[in-house]
Amino acid sequence: MEFEKALVLNDLHFPHENSRAIGLTLKIAEELQPDIIFLNGDIIDCWAISDFVKNPKTSNTDFSYEIERTSSFLYNLRWRFPKARIIYIFGNHEYRWVKYIVTHADKLVKLRGLSLEEQLGLNETDILVVNSGNRENSYLWGKLLIGHFDRVNKHSGMTAKNLIDDKSISLIQAHTHRGGSSFRRLYDRDIVGYENFCLCDRNPDYTDHPNWGLGFSIVYKDQDSDYFFVSQHPIAEIKNGSASFYKTFFNGKLYTG
């Protein structure tokens, strides 16, 4: 039986990423050697061009810094996984770029070099972009819809439940910053929805102790039938005094970062 392996990660929010959690994820990815890497939105934060009020004492509002940090990550990802297909699904934070240009300089929208794709050098890294120009984007991989939908509910798993109720298809949702799942039997098939954690700083300036969880997902898909299996990998943050350690299991082994 031939099957494909995919790594799904999202909500890194450069330059507000959790570098150690990302490092742990990519350490596991090097053992996995995925055929596809799905970057499921909000890889860049676009904080500097957001509409939110920013604290000048704690916020770096230099947008060129965000671009540099994100493009550096993407170049490094391609270097580490030269044979993998990398698919970048834009989320609501990438949409901030479109919104800013349309709001402040709509006559420049079609100028060469002004797209976020060009600013991040995605053509140079052979990364496929899924960008409809809207806040939501998704990619159908076999029978599994992988997307960054602009929807979040209070409790773990509830967003996944509501999305599969609305869309009647199995899916992986980013955006919620926590893990969760919901299973449903339809008349002719079974479907399941997953929420896929985050890999960003869980202590941002703009809120206090949000209910976010670190982690990623691995998907195995049969090439003949499109049957798939999703393995979710929450990353635990273990505190020891002022120090923190990150741990997760993969393939029967404990990984620490």
Structural overview:
- By secondary structure, the chain is an alpha/beta fold.
- The protein is built from five helices and 13 strands.
- Strand 12 and strand 13 form a beta hairpin.
- The chain starts with a strand and ends with a strand.
Major sheet: arrangement of strands: 4-3-2-1-10-11-12-13
Instruction: Return the CATH class.
Output: Alpha Beta
The tally of beta strands, per DSSP, is 13
Beta-strand fraction estimate: 25-35%
Average per-residue pLDDT, rounded, comes to: 94
Structural class: alpha/beta
Q: Give the overall form.
A: globular
Order of helices and strands: EHEHEHHEEEHEEEEEEE
CATH topology name: Purple Acid Phosphatase, chain A, domain 2
Describe the structure concisely for a colleague.
By secondary structure, this protein is of the alpha/beta class. The protein is built from five helices and 13 strands.
Write the layout of secondary structure elements.
Elements: E1 3-9, H1 19-32, E2 36-39, H2 63-80, E3 85-89, H3 92-105, H4 116-119, E4 127-130, E5 137-141, E6 144-148, H5 158-167, E7 170-173, E8 179-185, E9 190-196, E10 214-222, E11 228-240, E12 243-250, E13 253-256
Parallel strand pairs: 1-2, 2-3, 3-4, 6-7, 7-9
Antiparallel strand pairs: 1-10, 5-6, 8-9, 10-11, 11-12, 12-13
